[in-house]
Amino acid sequence: MTTKRILVAYGTKHGATAGIAEQIGETLREDGLDAVVLPAADVDDVRPYDGVVLGGSLYAGHWSGEAKRCAERNADSLRRRPVWFFSSGPLDSSAEEHDIPPVPAVARQMQIVGAREHMTFGGSITARTPGFLAKALLHEGKGGDYRNPERIRTWAHHIGAELTAA
Fold this sequence. Notes:
This protein is an alpha/beta fold. The chain contains seven helices and eight strands; from the N terminus they run βαβββααβααββαβα. Strands 1, 2, 3, 4, 5 and 6 form a six-stranded mixed β-sheet that branches. A two-stranded antiparallel ribbon has the order 7-8. The longest helix has 17 residues, at 149-165.
């Protein structure tokens, strides 16, 4: 039996979504899968992978352009393999309290590629996050790291179980 090769691709602005993607990849490797984690902008071909997890940061209700373009560029190939989407962004505990549906653009991409599932994780803006908007949000007391490693790992194990059962 060959080990399934899984791509975890992400579009991020300041690195928080990359951190989520790395955790997903690490968890899938713990589950015995060959998980490769790459920036979505670097993904030109998903055909070498048995499954794909694609994530993007949310800013003002819009998904990462890199993640969206990756989905569009690879739509035909994504339709032929299991795909999961995730978003990161809420700067509060709302992602912990209830399922947050994908924003409309993500829902459309999911429908186009036949994605199995979407998950929204909390985002992160800290003193190390560059940019004027990040500094302004921190000044308003709206920063923090709302990524939940346990929730990320649980979702990744769920994906790993689906992939190994297939």
